Automatic annotation (TrEMBL):
GO MF annotations, alphabetized: ATP binding; corrinoid adenosyltransferase activity
Reaction catalyzed: 2 cob(II)yrinate a,c diamide + reduced [electron-transfer flavoprotein] + 2 ATP = 2 adenosylcob(III)yrinate a,c-diamide + 2 triphosphate + oxidized [electron-transfer flavoprotein] + 3 H(+); 2 cob(II)alamin + reduced [electron-transfer flavoprotein] + 2 ATP = 2 adenosylcob(III)alamin + 2 triphosphate + oxidized [electron-transfer flavoprotein] + 3 H(+)
Listed GO biological process terms: cobalamin biosynthetic process
Superkingdom as given in the UniProt entry: Bacteria
Name assigned to this protein: Corrinoid adenosyltransferase
The keyword Transferase belongs to this UniProt entry's keyword annotation: yes
Annotated SUPFAM superfamilies: Cobalamin adenosyltransferase-like
Pfam families: Cob_adeno_trans
Coiled-coil zones: none
Entries under PANTHER family matching the protein: CORRINOID ADENOSYLTRANSFERASE, CORRINOID ADENOSYLTRANSFERASE MMAB
Length: 198
């Protein structure tokens, strides 16, 4: 199979159901999910399997789901069935809760960085935020966007934040707090230990 097709040599590309300019908002949106997927792959290459078997399984599943999300965003046909399911969002929320429970308490904003995999996961997090902004821009332009795509990308950025903190924690590198940050996070662990509820 040939890699190049020459069909995009004049600045157009194919969606599922249409051809558009390569700088179309929809192409920017699903193209950024591809960029995000690549950074997740880089993070996976930096995570030692003996310490991060669970994260590696998570991230491989996320890579598949980002392909699903990109396909859903690229589909402009009237009869389309979204590949990305609400159950994927629920699974991300469950994993965020589990990872947040393992990590040290967080009160203030932290600087992105630390160990190599944590730094890469933080980059992936910011790319996820950019993808989210582009999906919103697409919606605001009157384009049809699957609700699950926006919700998934929004939740994924939270997962990547939690995963970056776990990468530092398990590798013995404390997160660095932003020096001028006020206390912006609630100490849910401390409240649970005291039996307090909101």
């Amino acid at each position: 199979m040939g890699i190049y097709t020459r069909t995009g040599d004049k600045g157009m590309t194919g969606l599922i159901g249409a051809r558009v300019s390569k700088d179309h908002l929809r192409v920017e949106a699903y193209g950024t999910t591809d960029e995000l997927n690549s950074f997740i792959g880089k993070a996976m290459s930096e995570l030692p399997e003996e310490l991060f078997g669970d994260l590696l399984e998570d991230l491989e599943e996320i890579q598949h789901e980002l392909f699903d999300c990109g396909g859903d965003l690229a589909n402009v046909t009237d009869k389309r069935e979204n590949k990305l399911r609400p159950s994927s969002i629920q699974w991300l929320e469950k994993r965020i809760d589990e990872l947040s429970e393992e990590a040290p308490e967080l009160e203030r904003f932290i600087l992105p960085g630390g160990t190599d995999p944590a730094a890469t996961l933080h980059i992936a997090r910011t790319v996820a935020r950019r993808a989210e902004r582009q999906v919103v821009r697409l919606m605001n332009a009157g384009e049809q966007v699957p609700e699950t795509s926006l919700q998934y990308i929004n939740r994924l950025s939270d997962y990547l934040f939690a995963a970056a903190r776990i990468a530092n924690f398990r590798l013995g590198r404390p997160d660095v707090e932003y020096a001028r940050s006020a206390k912006v996070f609630r100490n849910t662990k401390r409240k649970q230990q005291k039996g307090e509820t909101d």
